[in-house]
Amino acid sequence: MQGVDAGQIRAWVRLSESMRTAPRPALDGRTIANLFFEDSTRTRTSFAIAAGNLGARVVDLAGVGSSVSKGESLIDTARTVEAMGVAALVVRARQSGAAELISRHVRVPVINAGDGRHEHPTQGLLDIATLARASGRMPSLDFAGFTLAIVGDVMSSRVARSAIAGFTALGARIICVGPPAMAPRSLESLGVEVSRELDGVLGEADGVMMLRIQFERHGEGTPVKPEDKKTPVIASIREYREMYGLTRERAALLRPKAWVMHPGPMNRGVEIDDEVADSPRSLIVRQVESGVFVRMGVLDWAVNG
Ligand code: CP
Fold first, then answer.
1. Ligand 1 centroid to 284 CA: how many Å?
2. Which residue's CA lies nearest to atom 3 of ligand 1?
3. Is the C-beta atom of 266 inside 6 A of ligand 1?
4. How far, in Å, from the CA of 143 to the mean position of ligand 1?
5. How far is CA 34 from the centre of its chain?
6. 130-164 per-position pLDDT tens digit
7. Residue range 167-194, pLDDT digits in tens
8. Are the CB atoms for 271 and 211 separated by under 8 Å?
9. Between 20 and 30 A from 273 (CA), which of 114, 150, 209, 229?
């Protein structure tokens, strides 16, 4: 989403809205390949459902169970699948830049479904679509005067990077909140503000996007295991939750009409409490729902132009 202008973002989101109100079999008889070399629940499933809604067949390939586990490169895998006659490749990978790299070696469109810490563009679009619908900004998609707080592990988050690019292009003010290793001052170069004080920011925000601690992206060369719930970038999970968790008590500081978002997967009881995630101000389920329409629009745009 970095470098994409507001006009293009609005066109994609409006196309996804048209898929919601008047779906059409834009990919009838075509085949879409899901190449997911990193785990996913929401993105992988919603791309498959979106392609099916457009009349396409879906082939679904994961790292485990494919010849990638025997040492085949992502590029050779992509070229092999392309040779079978697919209309587009949807790629998720651990490596930043993987989708872009693959796109230089195949002729069919490649859609980035999340690459390392870099970008998750369709997540950014679905976040924009969801917040625009909830806050009465559809179809204008004008976020001038809107303050979005992005809280937690911003440094590791491709979701945050796409959200920052998309929402700032549409006029929103963004405040990234977190401890120094997760929300360093260097983020200011992306046109956002940085704060260490969640309590102070909550009273200013029209929307709050909570992020998971991405344990698997921490550590020098040796990824931290999420199940260990220990990471060198914070002192402890308990302290993190006390300072940056959207607890039930802290949610009382939110403005009456402020929205709560989370891209998922959530770690309930760490960055967000059950009572907040499941409250009427939560857009989390609506984000997932929007994902299908956004991916229908993006697939149509990528394949049919
Ligand atoms: N938000 C998101 O990308 O979730 P998945 O990893 O489950 O696809």
1. 12
2. 43
3. no
4. 25
5. 17
6. 999 999 999 999 999 999 999 999 999 999 999 99
7. 999 999 999 999 999 999 999 999 999 9
8. yes
9. 114
Q: List alpha helices for the chain, DSSP H.
A: 6-21, 42-53, 74-83, 98-103, 121-134, 158-169, 198-202, 237-244, 248-251, 274-277, 284-304
Strands (E) across 124-266 are located at 147-151, 173-177, 193-195, 207-210, 259-261
Do strands 110-115 and 147-151 pair parallel, antiparallel, or not at all (unpaired)? Answer: unpaired
CA of 44 to the centre of ligand 1 (A): 8
C-alpha 156 to ligand 1 mean position (Å): 14
| Count of Cβ atoms closer than 10 Å to residue 96 Cβ | 15
Angle between helices 121-134 and 284-304 (to 10 degrees): 120
157 pocket-lining for ligand 1 (C-beta < 6 Å): no
What 3-state DSSP class applies to 51? helix
Sheet holding 207-210, edge to edge: 193-195, 173-177, 147-151, 207-210, 259-261
- CB of 40 closer than 6 angstroms to any ligand 1 atom: yes
Does residue 216 line the site of ligand 1, with CB under 6 A?
Answer: no
pTM over 0.85: yes
Closest atom of ligand 1 to CA, residue 92: 8
